Amino acid sequence: MLPVTPTATSAPRAGDVLELTVGEAVHGGWCVSRQDDTGQAVFVRHALPGERVRATVTQTTARFARADATEILQASADRVVPPCRFARPGGCGGCDWQHASVLAQRRLKAAVIRQQLRRIAGLDREVVVAAIAGDDGGLRWRTVVSFAVDQDGTAGLRRHRSHEVVAIDRCLIAHELVTAADVTGLRWPGATSVEVAVTPQTGERGVLITGRDVRPSSLPAISADSVQIATRPGVRTPVRGRSFVTRRAVGRDWRVSHGGFWQVHPGAADTLAHAVLAELDPRPGAAALDLYCGAGLFAGVLAEAVGPGGHVLAVEQDPAAVRDARHNLRDWPWARVHRGDVAHVLRRTGEGGASIGVLDPPRTGVAGPVIDVLCDRNGSLRRLAYVSCDPATLARDLRLLLAGGWELAGLLGYDAFPMTHHVECLATLVRS
Ligand SMILES: C[S@@+](CC[C@H](N)C(=O)[O-])C[C@H]1O[C@@H](n2cnc3c(N)ncnc32)[C@H](O)[C@@H]1O
User: Fold this and answer.
1) Cα(77)–Cα(268) distance, rounded to whole angstroms?
2) Do the Cβ atoms of 224 and 182 come closer than 8 Å?
C-alpha cells in the first residue's frame, strides 16, 4: 500500500498519492473527482463512479490534476478484473474501461454522450449505447491495429498520453487475424509504425509500414497478402501484393487502400449502413449526399436505394479514398464522387438538390462553413444522418445545426470500440 501524501491545502504534484471518492465518468475515459480538502478537480483513470480509491498523480496543471487509481479501497459493483494484463496504470494506453463489465462500459458511454449533449448543446436526452452485432464480449474485434515502433525496431502499443512504446506480446482487442501476423514478435528497423488491416470473412491481411528509413530488404518476413511501405505522406513503395484490402459489408466487396478509413469493428460497417438507411428512408428517384464518404460505403447503399432515377453526390478529400470510392461505386453511375474539402465542394456544387444526406466526419467534426451550407434556409435538404465518433464535437455541431433550423429527431449510440472510451453515434436531424 502506498502512503497517502499529506496534501493539506496545497495543489497536488506528480507522484503524490491522493485518497479520493470517484465521481461521474467524463469524455476521454476518465472519471472526475474532487480533492477532499482543496476541491480541485482530479481526472482519474482506472477508476469507476462511486469508488473510493488511492490515486497516484500523473500530471498537474493550474486548474486540474490527472491521476491513475492504483489502489481500490471500495470497488464498484461494475468492476471486473481487466482481461488484459497491459490494461493497468502505467501500462498500454489503448483501452480505458477494461476494468468495467462490458454492460457497464455501455452505460458509461451513454452517460458521457448525454453529459456532452447537455453541457455543449443544451439538450437533455436519454441515450442508449447498443452492442454491435456479433460482438465477442468486447474482445478480438479490432480489424485494424496500428502498432507503434520504437527506435530499436520493437513494435508495441503506446502508453497513455505518451509517445513511449509499451512492449506487449498480444493485444486482446485485436482480431485474431491481426494477432496471427505476430507484429510484436518481429523487428521493424527504421519503422515508426506498422498497421495491420484484416478482413475476417476472407482472411485477407494487409500491412502498411511507415518510416522514412524503412528498406524493403530489411523487413522481416511477415505473413500478409499485401505489404506496402509509406516513406513520406503520399509516397508508397509496394513490397508485395495489392495496394488495398478488400473489405466486406452489406453483401458486397469494398476496396480500401492501405491506411484508408474503414470501420474497425467487424460488424460496424453493416450496422451503421443499415441504420443510416433506416433513418434516411431513401426513396427511388431521390437525390442524396454522402459527405466525408471515405471508400463510399454510405454512398453505395444510398445509390442502390435511390436507383438510376436518383442521384448521389459523395465528397471526400483523401486522393486514395476518392480512387477507392470511384472504384467501389462503379456499379452505380448515378453516384458521383467529388474530390476535395467538403466545405469547398459544397460551396461549388451546393446541395445538388439532395433531400437527404449522411455526414460522417473525422473526430474533429464538421467545419463551420459546412454547417452554414447545411443550414441554408433555401436549401433542399430535409433529413440528415450525422455519424460521429466523438460526442463532444457532435454536441458542438448539433448546437449549431439546431440554431440553424434543424431538429434532432433521433440519437443512437453504438459500442463500436469496446474496452476503449470511444463510441459511435448516429444523430438524425430533420428540418424544422
Ligand atoms: C470517419 S471517415 C468516414 C468514411 C466513410 N463514411 C465510412 O464509413 O467508411 C471520415 C472521412 O472523411 C475524410 N475527410 C476528412 N476531412 C475531410 C474534409 N475536410 N473534406 C472531405 N473529406 C474529409 C477522411 O479522409 C475520411 O475518409
Assistant:
1) 29
2) no
Catalytic residues: 389
Starting at the earlier edge strand, list the strands of the sheet with 424-431: 129-131, 406-415, 424-431, 383-388, 356-359, 287-291, 311-316, 335-339
- Considering its fold, how many domains does the chain have in total? 3
Give the tens place of pLDDT for each residue, 130-172.
999 999 999 999 999 999 999 999 999 999 999 999 999 999 9
* Residue 375 maps to a domain: yes
pLDDT grade for 388, boundaries at 50, 70 and 90 = very high
Task: State the distance from the centre of ligand 1 to the C-alpha of 178, rounded, in angstroms.
Answer: 24
- Check pocket membership of 345 for ligand 1, CB cut-off 6 A: no
Ligand 1 atom closest to Cα of 361? 10
Ligand 1 contact via 292 beta carbon (within 6 Å): yes
342 lines ligand 1 (CB under 6 A): yes
In a domain, 344, yes or no: yes
Residue 107 C-alpha cell reads as 452505460
Q: Is 317 within a domain?
A: yes
Residues 21-46 have pLDDT tens digits of 999 999 999 999 988 778 889 999 99
How is residue 12 annotated by DSSP?
P
341 alpha carbon – ligand 1 mean position (Å): 9
Check if 285 has its Cβ closer than 6 Å to any atom of ligand 1.
Answer: no
Look at the pTM and tell me if it is higher than 0.90: yes
* Statement to judge: residues 377 and 273 lie in one domain: yes
**Contacts with 90 (C-beta within 8 Å, 6 or more apart), sequence order:** 68, 159
Among residues 44, 61, 79, which one ends one of the domains? 79
Residue in 379, 333, 334 with CA at minimum distance from that of residue 353: 379
409 and 273 inside one domain? yes
406 in contact with ligand 1, CB cutoff 6 A: no
User: Which protein residue has the closest C-alpha to ligand 1 atom 25?
Assistant: 318
Q: Do residues 279 and 391 both lie within one domain?
A: yes
For 15, 98, 102, 229, 288, the CA distances from 137, given in Å and listed in that order, are: 35, 11, 7, 34, 36
What is the per-residue pLDDT for 350? 86
CATH of the domain at 277: 3.40.50.150
Q: Which residues contact 282 (CB under 8 A, 6 or more apart)?
A: 288, 302, 305, 306, 310, 356
- Cβ–Cβ < 8 Å for 376, 11: no
Residue 95, domain member (yes or no)? no
CA–CA distances in Å: residue 187 to residues 92, 156, 182, 218:
19, 11, 10, 9
Domain of residue 59, residue span: 17-79
